[in-house]
Amino acid sequence: MNQTLEWDEDSRAERAADTFRRLFGGPPDGMWAAPGRVNLIGEHTDYNDGFALPMALPHTTLLAARARTDGRLRLHSAQGDGRITDLAVAALDPDAVTGWAAYPAGVVWALAEAGHPVGGADLHFDSTVPTGAGLSSSAALECAVAVAYDDLYGLRLPGPELARIAQRAENAFAGVPCGIMDQMASVCCTAGAALHLDARSPQDHRQVPFDLQGQGLRLLVIDTRVSHDLGDGAYAALRAGCERAAALLGLPALRDLPPGELARALRILPAELAPLVRHVVTENARVAEAVSRLREGDVAALGPILTAGHASLRDDYRVSCPETDLAVTAALGAGALGARMTGGGFGGSVIALVEAGQEDAVGVSVTTAFGAAGHRPPRILCVTPAAGAHRLAPPLGTR
Ligand code: GLA
Question: Distance between CA 381 and CA 399 in Å, rounded?
Answer without folding.
Answer: 34
